[in-house]
From TrEMBL:
Keyword Membrane: yes
Keyword Cell inner membrane included in the entry's annotation: no
GO cellular component, one term: plasma membrane
Originating species: Intrasporangium chromatireducens Q5-1
UniProt-recorded Gene Ontology molecular function terms: ABC-type transporter activity; ATP binding; ATP hydrolysis activity
Protein name per UniProt: ABC transporter
Pfam families: ABC_membrane (PF00664), ABC_tran (PF00005)
Length: 561
């Protein structure tokens, strides 16, 4: 954990302006403090000597007002800067992960922690700690230089005692680093575990094991609590230690000034300025110590976030250096050349030495469970990178076994991923006229009609605007599949990949869906993994995968009808 990580300014250039503005505010406020010390001592001297107090009092009031205005302005700028930094880091992370193939993306626990609490934790680091650090590099110099002019012995005392503060701050910082890292690991475990529990809740409830998770979450939370308390203990102790050191140093200056005043070797004005100014030399460094503790979590999070933001570059370099990966032709050509795929280096390959050339039309992929059919679709979609060989494919639209349905309206679920505007389609055959308000809605109704869902949606309150819960809550498995197929019919990608698209459909619904798939295959390359003989009968090409030697899969047959 470095006190200052210049990668933040490099990777998120947008933060430079707010940090510079906050630093300028800090330095200006330091300069005003020096001026206030002079005005205050002039006022006291005037009172003691019975001189007119109007001018110094006016100056003092003006300086106090300016400092109050600056403090308010700095709060506003720092709140804005903090929010801007975390928002930009979050979107940079999501963009970077979106560009990566699935197997290079971080695991969901890490991703959730970094993009939520991680990015938020950087706020105090960027908005408070960094400006304070830069202010602390400038303001003590200003205070010491002024002291040297007004009263050089006081300046010497400050110069000799000031370095003790950073030395102690570094020693305490080392202890904080370990405890902060421990707290961060505990937080990642807590959120990861919580995510797993939420995901598996239906299964846990089904097996009567949900109650047990309460104890597990409690135990992980307890670990997080004790790690947080350890960090807070160090933070409070270190602040107290730095305060004590600074107070002793200021007391030394005050005692020496007092003695010299009593001996008559120093004027009252110079003595007052020395006593008022010397705390200003220590104050910014003490504040750095305090801010460091509130920003320590952010510094660790920032380190992890920047490592993730820099990783995609490394991945791109790997691709350019000749590793076999997917290439994207302009034509709708789909080729798989000598492909091997392993989920992890230590695991046996799932696919091995697979070579395919897929022509326009419907290709049906069959094979026993676990043979690697879904893996093949993910390779064709570019979500996975082959460990050996090449995949050449145009942009693809993938319908997975359990399609994702966003929370929102039926319209949003059907048009997810559809181009804007939706390409015009022939709706003359559509009997559905209710609720048609625009060309986009007409296309949505037509897509729903093709999968036999138009009647169901029209009967819903709000029809296309009917709300759907999280991940399509409220839809049956078959309706979810039909919405995904309707979505596929609106997409324009030249390659359509369907993983068991009609597994949950029977009778008429399956027949309608098969007809739609065959229709899609008239214009594009459609690859469907299925166990249904009805869909196989419609296929132009058939690819059968079989495990041959051990766990690896080889292509057993490619039959052209
Ligand atoms: N994330 C993963 N990590 C490790 N192994 C995996 C992972 N996902 C799948 N596998 C393994 O890869 C093999 C192929 O899985 P895949 O889902 O491609 O099979 P499939 O032919 O589509 O099966 P099904 O017909 O049951 O859907 C299986 O043995 C599976 O256990």
């Amino acid at each position: 954990m470095k006190p200052f990580d210049p990668r933040l300014l490099r990777t998120v250039p947008a933060v430079r302006a707010p940090i510079a503005a906050l630093t300028a505010v800090g330095v200006l406020s330091g300069a005003l403090t020096v001026a206030t010390a002079f005005a205050l001592s002039a006022l006291v001297v005037a009172v003691v000597e019975g001189a007119p107090v109007g001018t110094p009092a006016l100056w003092l009031a003006a300086l106090f007002a300016a400092r109050a205005l600056l403090a308010a302005g700095s709060d506003i700028v720092s709140a804005w800067a903090g929010a801007a930094v975390s928002t930009r880091l979050r979107s940079a992370l999501l963009r970077a992960w979106g560009r990566l193939p699935a197997e290079r993306r971080p695991d969901p626990d890490t991703a959730v922690t970094l993009a939520t609490s991680g990015a938020t934790a950087v706020e105090p680091y960027a908005a408070r700690y960094l400006p304070t650090l830069l202010t602390a590099a400038l303001v003590p110099g200003l205070a010491i230089a002024t002291l040297a002019v007004v009263d050089w012995p006081s300046a010497v005392i400050v110069v000799l005692t000031l370095p003790l503060l950073p030395v102690f701050a570094v020693l305490i910082g080392k202890a904080t680093q370990t405890s902060t890292e421990r707290r961060w690991v505990a937080l990642a475990q807590l959120s990861g575990h919580f995510l797993d529990v939420v995901r598996g809740l239906p299964t846990l409830v089904g097996y009567g094991r949900a109650g047990h998770q309460v104890g597990v979450v409690k135990e992980v939370s307890e670990r997080h609590r004790s790690a947080t308390m350890a960090t807070l203990r160090i933070a409070f102790l270190s602040s107290a230690a730095l305060e004590l050191l600074a107070s002793i140093s200021v007391a030394i200056v005050a005692v020496v000034v007092g003695l010299r005043l009593s001996w008559g070797t120093m004027s009252l004005g110079a003595g007052l300025v020395a006593i008022l100014l010397s705390p200003e030399a220590y104050w910014p460094i003490r504040r750095v110590g305090a801010e460091f503790h509130s920003a320590a979590g952010g510094a660790v999070a920032l380190d992890a976030i920047l490592a993730h933001l820099e990783a995609p570059n490394a991945a791109c370099e790997g691709a350019l250096s000749g590793a076999p990966v997917r290439s994207t032709p302009n034509a709708a050509l789909v080729e798989v050349e000598g492909v091997e795929y392993r989920y992890a280096a230590e695991l046996a390959p799932v696919l091995r030495d697979l070579t395919l050339r897929l022509a326009p039309g419907l290709t049906v992929v069959t094979g026993p469970s676990g043979v690697g059919k879904s893996t093949l679709l993910e390779l064709l979609a570019g979500l996975r990178t082959p460990t050996r060989g090449t995949v050449t494919a145009p942009a693809a639209h993938l319908v997975t076994q359990r399609p994702f349905i966003p929370a929102g309206t039926v319209r949003a679920a059907v048009t997810l991923g559809a181009p804007r505007p939706i390409p015009s389609i022939d709706v003359s055959a559509s009997p559905m006229s209710r609720g048609m308000t625009s060309t986009r809605d007409e296309a949505v109704w037509e897509a729903l009609r093709r999968v036999g869902l138009d009647g169901v949606v029209a009967a819903l309150p709000g029809s296309l605007d009917a709300p759907l819960g999280d991940d399509g809550f409220g839809l049956s498995a078959g309706q979810r599949q039909r919405i995904a197929l309707a979505r596929a019919s609106l997409c324009t990608e030249p390659l359509v990949l369907l993983d068991e698209p009609t597994a949950h459909l029977d009778g008429d619904a399956a027949e309608q869906a098969h007809a739609l798939i065959a229709e899609l295959a008239e214009r594009r390359v459609v690859v469907a993994v299925t166990h249904r003989p009805e869909l196989l009968r419609l296929a132009d090409h058939h690819v059968h995968l079989e495990p041959v030697h051990g766990p690896a899969t080889e292509l057993r047959a490619e039959v052209r009808r």
